[in-house]
From TrEMBL:
Gene3D superfamilies: 3.40.50.2300. It comes from the Bacteria. Keywords: Arsenical resistance. Residues 1-135 form the Phosphotyrosine protein phosphatase I domain. Pfam families: LMWPc. Signal peptide: none annotated. The keyword Lipid metabolism does not apply. The keyword Membrane does not apply. InterPro entries: Ptyr_pPase, Ptyr_pPase_sf. One of its GO terms (biological process) is response to arsenic-containing substance. This is Arsenate reductase ArsC. It comes from Massilia cellulosiltytica.
Amino acid sequence: MNILFLCTGNSCRSLISEAVFNHLAPAGWNALSAGSHPTGRLNARALALLAAKGIPTDGYYSKSWDGLPVTPDVVVTVCDSAAGETCPAYLGPVLRTHWGVEDPSHVTGTEAEIDAAFERAYAILRARIEAFLALPPERLAGDRAAFKAALDHIGKLDGSMP
C-alpha cells in the first residue's frame, strides 16, 4: 500500500507524516509526501524533531506531486483548512481523506511556544498514523466506503487519545 501525505509546501507536516508512517509501517507499506507548490527545502525544526524522536529522514526532500514514483492508494491532506489554508486536491483515482493539522512552522512566540507547536503537530500526526496502522487488514481490503469512513474518523483524533 502506498500512502501520499499531501500539503502545499511539503516542508513540515507532510514530511513529519511521511517519516513517522515509514518508521512505523509494516513491510510492503510505504509513505511519501509531496506538495502542490513545494518550498524546495525541508523545515529545520521538523527535521530536528524527527531526529530527536529517533525517526530517520535520510533521502527525504521537498517535492512536487508531479512525477511521483508510484501511484498512491490513499492520499491524506494535512493542511489546516480551518486556518484558511487552501488544501491541494489530488486528482488521481485514489481514496482521499483529510487530516488537517495546524502548521507549526507559522507559529510565533518564544522558543518554548514554537517547540510546543511542533510537538503538538507531531503528537496529532503520530496518533492518527498509529490508528491507521491499527485498522484491521480486512477493513482495508474489503469495503472501500468503510475504509474511507475509518480514515475520516481518524482525521478527527487530536493526539491526546491513546
